[in-house]
Amino acid sequence: MKKQAAIPGGLHASKQRQITAENFAALLAALGDTPQERGTQYEALRSKLGFFFSRRSLQLPEDLADEVLDRLARRIAEGVEISSVQAFALGIARYVAQEQSAEQSHLLVFDEQLWHNIPAHLATQNEEEEIDRMERCLKKLPRAEARLLEGYYLAPADNPMQARKDLANDLGISANTLRQRVFLARQSLRACMMAAERKKKI
Amino acid sequence: MTTVRRELREYLLGQLPADAANAFDARLFAEDDLLHELEDEQDALIEDFIKERLIESEAASFRAQLARSPALQERVRSLRILLGALERQSTRVSRPAAPRFSRFLVLISPVLTIMLCFVIFLYFKESRRNIRLNAQLLALSRRPQPVAPTIGQNVVSVAFLSAHNLRGSSVPPEFTIPATASFLELQIELIGTTPEEDTWDAEVRRGTEVVWKSSHIPMRRIGQEQFLALFIDAGDIRPDAYVVQYAPTSNPGAFQSRSFRVREP
Asked: Does the ipTM exceed 0.85?
């Protein structure tokens, strides 16, 4: 497996990475006893790493997560004794985050005042067109999914989290299942939007 | 907002002290559910930012993150588009017909008012006409009640001349006088009389021949109806056309006349 992540401005998430099949197998073996458990734990760890980097506003958080996993796999394959894979991964992630923060501060300049002058709710002309397209995509969604999104996102403003719990109760599902359904509905919308965008270009 | 949620937000916005943030990082990697809670809270944070529900310190931290993270910018943009579409759709679904319907009502209400007035006018006009017709039909259909059913042992035949001639002036009312009748009681309906016109003079003519004549005939009243009752010897009335002329005794010039025809019995 060979990956290289390029960042606009010349910054790279990592140098050229290489993970061998042996290293990857060693990582999976450290994550669980069964193939299913190993797969689940791998995805969970990768998600946590991605979240860890995105919270720090680092560029290309998913690539950074892969960088951590590569290093972790290598250390495990080298026979380093690890009591907690997750805790070890966090240690590597902190190190990578420090590296990236240092690189970014040298190479990227952010205008933090830029967003202070832009109203959060204001849609640009381009976004207005996308809202039109999104409306068309919403109409193509199964009615139950469209209503789910409406109930989820247009909940009363005073306590939206409670409103979502109530919605999950009304539907007879857990809050986690509700979140997954919303995620899937949004994935469908994203696919529809991308298809519409391709059509527009043609 | 609960303390737990407040803490999640502070962590997400980078507002926690370093030690507390490190502890949160450790929990993130040790616990399975915390990631979901953080993702939910971040969604809520983005949503609150778009809907301008963040307090100033939260909004400032969020904007700082936004400036640094294209991924976050994309998430904000994506949710803003979705919310925009959902709100538009919701507005269209919940209030689709009301403005159009009210506009429609505003346009047609003057027309409706005029039509309503016209219908009310027609209704009252027809009602009055109906009342008049009913009165005429009642008068025509009612069997005349003789003032004097018999005079001694003699049979009296009664005929009623309504003030309302439904058949038109060209067709005078017709009736027969039974052969057994000795007298004809000819009742003539009066309308528009004054209290002074309590007695009347009348004569019955067959062509130019006066076959019966009387003065100071009292006007009779039954309920609202007023009429004269002329008692004529049946022998004087043979099948033919007649004219009865009558006028108040106090004003002989204001005479009125009615035609009638007596048929063969």
From this structure: no
